[in-house]
What does this fold into?
Amino acid sequence: MKVRMLDTRDADFDAAFAQLVAVDTAGDRQIERAACAIVDDVKAHGDAAVLEYTRRFDRVDAPSVAALEIGAGEMRGALEALALEDRAALEAAARRIQIFHEKQRGESWEIVEEDGTALGQRVTPLDRVGLYVPGGKAAYPSSVLMNAIPARVAGVREIVMVVPTPGGEKNPLVLAAASLAGVTRAFAIGGAQAVAALAYGTATVPAVDKIVGPGNAYVAAAKRRVFGVVGIDMIAGPSEILIVCDGKTDPDWIAMDLFSQAEHDELAQAILLTPDGSFIEAVAASIARLLPAQPRRAIIEASLARRGALIRTRDLDEACAIANRIAPEHLEISTEEPERWAEKIRHAGAIFLGRYSSEALGDYCAGPNHVLPTARTARFSSPLGVYDFQKRTSVIHVSRAGAQTLGRIAERLATGEQLPAHAQSAAYRIDK
It folds into this structure.
């Protein structure tokens, strides 16, 4: 196959680049309407609607939603039945993810002023969260770890997992990861109907405070629909990788790193930025040679043809500037002195420094979270973390002496805003 090649020196580069990074919204309205109809149906009819959509979309005809619950014993049994090497890998990843996320735990604090007034912030965990785990084209035990472990570290008491099981087939690695990560309840349901069940609750599925985890376009549309009734982590789009390279990394490594995200789905994006024209040719040759042996070749080929590119830049400074325009989910800086170039990056979900930091390590076991902002949302949002499962409450304890000072300030400002009851409320506490 031939991957799109661009050069920033070309007169038509800006137009070609804009077309490359544009988000295709064709069909979004139809998906939105379908997802919203499902959400509204589940809100109105609860378990009955969940059962009907599970039968229709997952080909599972269950007598009740309770029959779709996956018990703690089944999850624990899946963990115990794993091959030793699989279990060791899962446990090692979980351990590293937990160690990293423990550093993110927020703490309550207080300041006390000279007059005895105390001001502070109380940090508390959410009570119950819902975890959506994809189960269509592929199953993702890594997503279970990345979503559930930060919630557990934050102190969330109940973690409710939903995972579609097309044809009734449950993935043992997903169940094992759920047991290891501390999932408290799980249901074999998916799609927009599972999101609605978590948001509104049914006779069987408990309502949660926040829904996290990636899914397909219908899941994303459903999360958007229920936001406000519950919190959500983010609206996840197709996966992205951007590689900034000085041309000195093995081109096979770069090609395979591009494949690693392109294989997610046909809309994923994989881009290389380098000032070395001969390196672009070398990577293109590696792609052509390595692609035929890839089990997910068709998906990779479609992704690279549609949204992939090998871009020649004037220098690494320009590559970093373009990286900031893209604000990618994953950014590899495969250069000498990668820290130097990382200083120039303002927008990225995760940055992988150096030739040995493949994005795949971040997906599974490095430790930082792999749930990252996509579609340029890294300009204003962050990776999933413990802070997503904690909330902050302001605490104000005004002393009698403090009320004399603060009361006069508040009275004056409230009068200026023409809110007399506010002004009098403050003034009542001023000593006469």
Summary: The longest helix spans residues 84-102. The chain has a mean pLDDT of 96. The longest strand covers residues 118-125.
